[in-house]
Amino acid sequence: MELKLTGKRVLVTGASSGLGLHFAQVLARSGAEVTLAARRFSKVQKAAEEIRLDGYAAEALELDVTDKISVTKAFSADPYDVVINNAGISGSGRALEMKIEEFESVLQTNLTGVFAVAQAAAQQMSSRGGSIINIASILGLRVAGQVSAYAASKAGIIQLTKALALEWARHQIRVNALCPGYIETPFNKAFLESEAGQALIRRIPQRRLGQLSDLDAPLLLLASDASAYMTGSVLVVDGGHLVSSL
Ligand code: NAI
User: Fold this and answer.
1) Number of domains in the chain
2) Chain segment 66-90, per-residue pLDDT in tens
């Protein structure tokens, strides 16, 4: 079975940079009509224009996943077939000193935002089915220092994914989580080149970071009908990082 998405309407949240922008480009190249959503409209507008110049279908949408009105508006037109819940923030810091407001803000974006988008998407999808992909992280399955809020939010996404998969299977809505390991992007390049970053790479069994392209096939699998019998699954793409030796 081919991992094609010809004619499918796909929404990607947080598509102005990093993984989200890459996902939008990959989905468009696979035939999807992609909507790139982010708070910074001018950035997604430019990215959508570049995708169109390459001959694929893309639109831009202003969306803040923490703003109820913004989420409702994003799902007020034609329903999407596939929604990629990618928007997220990292919010690292020592737990002893972290302000409650900072903790809440990570949960607000990474967990409540994912729920709000999934719920609005499912309300539209319920008569026709669809696929929702929540971008979690290996930090939802194991922990590291100074990422308590992030790890808690990503663990929450994994349980949320399973709970929604159970409730929405009757509506032919599949909900799956993708858990990337450490993926090299322009934003973490400096850290990953540092001594601490290099030590981290040595702990990955495959001894390398993930590249954006390592996520392409897993993403297309979950988005396309090739995964018709997959729901509530948690797909880890991490070069073996989670199975590193204790
Ligand atoms: P990034 O910072 O480049 O991308 C995050 C995107 O989410 C940005 O476009 C940002 O503007 C957007 N965003 C943040 N708050 C938002 C809000 N309230 N409403 C709408 N958009 C909002 O980071 P990256 O690395 O591309 O991360 C994307 C997703 O992948 C995140 O959920 C992250 O936790 C996850 N992830 C990233 C990994 C990595 O190694 N880069 C590894 C595992 C997971």
Assistant:
1) 1
2) 999 999 999 999 999 999 999 999 9
| Residue from 13, 19, 66, 183 to probe ligand 1 pocket by mutation (most atoms less than 8 Å from CB) | 19
Query: What CATH number is given to the structural domain containing 117?
Result: 3.40.50.720
Q: So which residues are the catalytic ones?
A: 150
Question: What pLDDT digit, counting tens, does each position of 117-130 carry?
Answer: 999 999 999 889 99
CA nearest neighbour of 67 among 75, 78, 77: 75
242 domain residue, yes or no: no
Say if CB 37 and CB 9 are below 8 A apart.
no
Q: Which domain holds residue 147?
A: 9-236
Predicted structure pTM score: 0.98
Q: How far is the CA of 16 from the centre of ligand 1 (A)?
A: 9
Closest CA to 83 of 47, 49, 42, 129: 129
Distance 110 CA to ligand 1 centre (A): 9
